[in-house]
């Protein structure tokens, strides 16, 4: 009798075991393939599931992973006539990692997969099912994992009963998904991004878009109730900014804890006017942050911006000569070449880290400063002008400090000194500083809204981009050898580059004239004469020898610096917001701006500075063009200039409200609009005219 009972137990247990695949343990997850029923009838559709138990602290990703991550991938091997549908993902959670937000699952995850059986499947047989599953599992680090999951499914004459161990688990996983369309939804744009409009009294609603980059996961997710509806204000992602969709599709999750349910919604776009976001003058940085990419994209943008610095007019002569020196070194000692490039890169990165650290420290102390704050100081502009002038004299051959142009540090580097190689990187950053703002406004603006550690990483990415050409030359000797060999042509080209430095000097002198007026320019002129004397004396000392020339050079250089460092804000002349502008310009005034907007007058605000190269190019090539001036007059648009040439806490605060930390910034306030339109940093005549004429929304 006991033996008979034992055989009966085996009989009943065997079908259940057949519908549960063997568990596969990977590094941080245990995964198996399971079925909701003990078998399947021909032509029937049953639920399978990929069931994962995750180690504590680890997570996998939803179908739209958010700011980073990868969803589950399934590659099925099935008998003929069998077909597996796309998986139904578990309800996602928001998982924060620093400034990033991902959508994913923790602890355990049940991915339900409907399986359609072949019409001609033969009852009484068992068919093997197999799937190659791969996923990304993350904690502090991310690890790709994969497994081959198998299951033997009996074919039955009629629908089989539920699988006793895991059937309920699959049923629960499906039950939390409500039918599509059971919640009415629509969306509109409030001027800063999409706003979902839903029925009232929803418990803890969360929206998860199906399409990546449509909504910024780390942006705003502001839920408000009132007037018989619930609204969720979201920040737009790249895909939305490129082309707002006709419908906003995703999963609306409501409820909390074990009462969470998900409803697919397709919110059609409406043209209704919303006033959800506060006016632009009081808008919060977080409301603008969604217009910027995630951290990975910001770092890439910063890196590319640093690379662009290598071809800026005030930097290119230096980087050319540095590359030439490395090319010469490549013909000799490959180890020394790599060491020098590495130390040069270290000098660049340390300099950016120090500058960024100083900026964050000043902001933490309450100073209203942004990137470019050092260029608002006439002392810094004057010292840069003297440095650029001396570099130009060196390029012309008035004196030598090694075969490159970056000062005494480069001379040390020429003799193989590690300190010299490091110091050349420091000087490269100092020379690049006046050129950095116009090309890196977005990543720097985002960096200054982040914690200091993440912000500094953006500046380090800029430095890595600046140093990249030298790293490539040091790591790829063939690249260095492909460069033209040193010869007389380099002397001619070097002298030509001196005039690029003098052009930069003219620009700096003009900036100083705006900051410190005629007296400031006179002070700079005296300093340049003394610096020229220092350069000549130093060169004569090299040519004929003698200590006296070096003493004269040192004294003249000291006398050149003294009047520059005595420039102060008290010497600053009144600024003219109309300088160089054909348009009838009014100085930036928030009270006037608010009054104009209340009257329905369109307003164009130009955040600019004399030391901003891009600002001046846009003014001369776009804003001063006849077609643009005519468009301003025809549309009745008022032109306001927010001049940031010298420190101005009101303008700094206005920039920060738009999520920016530097200039240029161009805002257009259309009549009746709740928020301004942000124009590109590089303007075009057609683009500005189209905005003023209302041909672009």
UniProtKB/TrEMBL annotation:
Residues 1-18 form the signal peptide. Pfam families: DsbD_N, DsbD_TM, Thioredoxin_7. GO terms for molecular function: protein-disulfide reductase [NAD(P)H] activity. The chain crosses the membrane at residues 295-320, 341-360, 380-399, 419-440, 452-476, 496-514, 520-539, 551-569. It is found in: Membrane. GO terms for cellular component: membrane. Keywords: Cytochrome c-type biogenesis, Membrane, Oxidoreductase, Redox-active center, Signal, Transmembrane, Transmembrane helix. It comes from Parvularcula dongshanensis. This is Thiol:disulfide interchange protein DsbD. PANTHER family: SUPPRESSION OF COPPER SENSITIVITY PROTEIN, THIOL:DISULFIDE INTERCHANGE PROTEIN DSBD.
């Amino acid at each position: 009798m006991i033996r008979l009972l034992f055989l009966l137990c085996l009989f009943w247990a065997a079908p259940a075991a057949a519908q549960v695949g063997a568990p596969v343990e990977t590094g941080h997850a245990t995964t198996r393939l399971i079925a909701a029923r003990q078998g399947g009838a021909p032509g029937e559709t049953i639920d399978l599931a990929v069931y994962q138990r995750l180690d504590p602290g680890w997570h996998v990703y939803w179908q739209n992973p958010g700011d980073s991550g990868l969803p589950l991938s399934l590659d099925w091997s099935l008998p003929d006539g069998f077909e597996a549908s796309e998986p139904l993902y578990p309800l996602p959670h928001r998982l924060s990692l620093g400034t990033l937000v991902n959508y994913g699952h923790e602890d355990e995850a049940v991915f339900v997969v409907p399986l359609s059986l072949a019409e001609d499947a033969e009852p009484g047989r068992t068919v093997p099912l197999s799937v190659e599953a791969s996923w990304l599992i993350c904690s502090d680090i991310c690890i790709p994992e994969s497994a081959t999951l198998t299951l033997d499914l009996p074919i039955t004459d009629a629908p089989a009963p539920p699988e006793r161990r895991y059937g309920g688990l699959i049923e629960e996983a499906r039950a939390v998904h409500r039918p599509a369309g059971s919640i009415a939804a629509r969306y509109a744009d409030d001027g800063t991004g999409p706003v979902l409009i839903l029925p009232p009294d929803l418990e803890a609603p969360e929206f998860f878009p199906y399409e990546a980059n449509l909504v910024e996961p780390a942006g705003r997710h502001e839920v408000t109730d009132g007037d018989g509806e619930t609204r969720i204000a979201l920040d737009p992602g790249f895909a939305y900014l490129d082309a707002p969709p006709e419908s906003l599709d995703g999963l609306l999750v409501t409820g909390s804890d074990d009462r969470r349910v998900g409803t697919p919604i397709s919110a059609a776009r409406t043209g209704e006017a919303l006033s959800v976001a506060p006016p632009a003058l009081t808008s919060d940085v977080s409301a603008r942050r969604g217009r910027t990419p995630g951290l990975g994209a910001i770092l890439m943008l910063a890196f590319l911006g640093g690379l662009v610095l290598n071809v800026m007019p005030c930097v290119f002569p230096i980087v050319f000569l540095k590359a030439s020196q490395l090319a010469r070194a490549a013909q000799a000692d490959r180890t020394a070449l790599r060491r020098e490039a590495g130390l040069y890169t270290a000098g660049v990165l340390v300099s950016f880290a120090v500058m960024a650290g100083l900026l964050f420290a000043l902001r933490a102390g309450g100073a209203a400063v942004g990137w470019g704050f050092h260029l608002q100081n006439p002392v810094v502009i004057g010292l840069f002008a003297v440095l650029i002038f001396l570099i130009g004299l060196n390029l012309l051959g008035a004196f030598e400090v090694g075969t490159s142009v970056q000062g005494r540090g480069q001379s040390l580097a020429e003799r193989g000194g590690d300190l010299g190689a490091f110091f050349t990187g420091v000087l490269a950053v100092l020379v690049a500083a006046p050129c950095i703002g116009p090309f890196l406004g977005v990543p720097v603006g985002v960096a200054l809204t982040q914690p200091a550690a993440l912000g500094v990483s953006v500046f380090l990415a800029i430095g890595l981009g600046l140093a990249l050409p030298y790293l490539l030359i040091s790591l790829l000797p063939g690249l260095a050898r492909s460069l033209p060999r040193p010869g007389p042509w380099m002397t001619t080209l070097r002298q030509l580059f001196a005039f690029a430095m003098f052009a930069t000097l003219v620009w700096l002198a003009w900036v100083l004239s705006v900051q410190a007026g005629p007296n400031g320019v006179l002070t700079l002129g005296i300093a340049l004469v003394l610096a020229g004397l220092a350069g000549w004396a130093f060169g004569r000392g090299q040519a004929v020898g003698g200590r006296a020339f070096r003493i004269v050079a040192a004294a003249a250089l000291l006398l050149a610096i003294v009047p520059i460092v005595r420039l102060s804000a008290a010497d600053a002349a009144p600024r003219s917001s109309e300088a160089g502008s054909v348009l009838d310009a009014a100085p930036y005034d928030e009270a006037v701006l608010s009054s104009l907007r209340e009257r329905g007058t369109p307003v164009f605000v130009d955040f600019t500075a004399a030391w901003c190269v891009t600002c001046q190019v846009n003014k001369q090539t776009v804003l001063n063009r006849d077609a643009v001036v005519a468009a301003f007059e025809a549309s009745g648009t008022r032109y306001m200039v927010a001049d940031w040439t010298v420190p101005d806490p009101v303008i700094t605060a206005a920039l920060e409200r738009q999520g920016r930390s530097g200039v240029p910034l161009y805002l257009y306030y259309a009549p009746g609009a709740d928020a301004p339109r942000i124009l590109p940093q590089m303007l075009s005549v057609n683009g500005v005219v189209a905005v003023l004429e209302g041909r672009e929304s």
